[in-house]
């Protein structure tokens, strides 16, 4: 399977809303309520304090159709770091290695990133995924250190 990560476009909204509905288990655990129609639009405005709009990336994982979605902020909380708001894979595609492929694709697309941060919530499968990917979990969240590339990029 060749997975690509591309920027979200307005034409993706119906499919992303279907993905959000399919991932209601995560929404319930993380936010306490199901996803809603305004969730996609609100992502554009959900920025940590001090972050510029240009640092925000909404990415669609694609391989013969949409198979995932990533909410990402670059250079946060520090230069060379990235913060993941969330990382969604449809229920019927979980545990097939898609999340691992998405992490690899993120590293390829953003080679300057040396640390990836994710918050922890009450969604046990997500926290188990972070552990399996090598994230270090602590009280503040989870951090993955990515070794710099040998070619200097």
UniProtKB/TrEMBL annotation:
CDD domains for the chain: NAT_SF
Pfam family, one: Acetyltransf_3
Protein name in the entry: GNAT family N-acetyltransferase
Signal peptide per UniProt: none
Matching PROSITE patterns: GNAT
Domain N-acetyltransferase: 3-153
Gene3D superfamilies, alphabetized: 3.40.630.30
């Amino acid at each position: 399977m060749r997975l690509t990560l591309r920027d979200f476009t307005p034409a993706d909204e119906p499919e992303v809303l279907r993905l959000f509905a399919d991932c209601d288990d995560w929404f319930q655990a993380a936010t306490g309520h199901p996803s809603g129609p305004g969730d996609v639009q609100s992502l554009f405005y959900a920025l940590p304090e001090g972050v510029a709009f240009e640092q925000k990336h909404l990415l669609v994982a694609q391989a013969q159709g949409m198979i995932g979605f990533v909410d990402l902020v670059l250079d946060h909380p520090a230069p060379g770091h990235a913060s993941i708001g969330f990382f969604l894979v449809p229920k019927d595609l979980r545990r097939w290695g898609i999340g691992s492929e998405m992490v690899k694709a993120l590293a390829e697309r953003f080679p300057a990133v040396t640390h990836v941060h994710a918050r922890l919530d009450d969604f046990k499968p997500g926290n188990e995924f972070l552990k399996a990917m090598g994230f270090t979990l602590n009280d503040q969240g989870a951090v993955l250190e990515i070794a710099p590339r040998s070619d200097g990029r």
